[in-house]
Structures are given as structure tokens and as C-alpha cells.
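User: Hi! I'm working on a homework problem where we have to compare a predicted structure to a textbook description. Could you give me the structure for the chain below?
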Amino acid sequence: MRNRNITILSCAMVLAGCAIQRAQVAQDARAQMVGFSKEQILACMGPPASKAAEGQTEVWSYASGNGYSSTVASADISSTGQATRVGNQVYGSANSTGFGTAVSTRRFCTVNVVMTNGAVAVVNYQGPTGGLLTAGEQCAFVVDACVKKG
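Assistant: Happy to help. Predicted C-alpha cells:
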């Protein structure tokens, strides 16, 4: 049992480490992509899911994420019972009730690349992009190829 707990804990730490690394990639992309041309964005991110334009400003939007979802469930179960013995006979009754709730959340990211005069001015992230320590981690999937490693 102890080895199983250590294995589960090790796996959880590896997964958390990956999420933290993706959050760092997403943070780096916001700074590194400023100044990229449209051609550079197309080369590293591909064609956008949608585009909007107003004057010299364009916004290209990309969906990003790995489909992560989390479910938290709780239950409240109570039961009562009563048994009576009369001679050799046992008479009994039981009552059981239960109530449960579950909340499921899904993380994803919409990456908005804002370009002015054909160059990236800012990169914005929208949506439930990660956890408390991993903000933006769901955005890394689409911007990863644009970020210099190392």
C-alpha cells in the first residue's frame, strides 16, 4: 500500500511540474511574440480560428487546451436501523438516505493575438486557463512553437 501511495504522489508531482512548465511557456510567449509579423504567427501557430479587424488593428483568435477537466464530488449518507427479537423471531426495519453533489470544471484558453500595422502588439489569454500556480497553462499548447527554448 505504501509503494502505491508513493507512486501516486510521484505521478501527481510530475503532472504538476508539467502544468507549471506550460504556464511558464505561456508567460514567455506573451513577451517573446511582440513584434512578430503575420507570416511568423502563421508559421508557428497556423491559421487562426477567427479574425477581426478595425482600421490598422487585427485580432487573430486561437483555441488552445488539452481538454483538462476536474470533478469534485461529495456525498452525505445516513442510515438508521432497528431490530427486535421476540422469542426465536427477529423483526427489523432499516432506513437509508443519501444526497450527493458534484461540480465539474473544464480548463481552456482562447489566445488573442492583437496586431497593429502587421506586427504583434500584444498577446491576450481568455478563459479558465489554469490553476492558482499554473495560470495560462492551457494557452501553452498553441503558442509553444513560437517560444524560444532555453
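For your comparison, note the following. Residues 5-15 have pLDDT under 50 and may be disordered. The beta strands are 50-54, 57-64, 69-86, 89-106, 109-116, 119-126. Good luck with the assignment!
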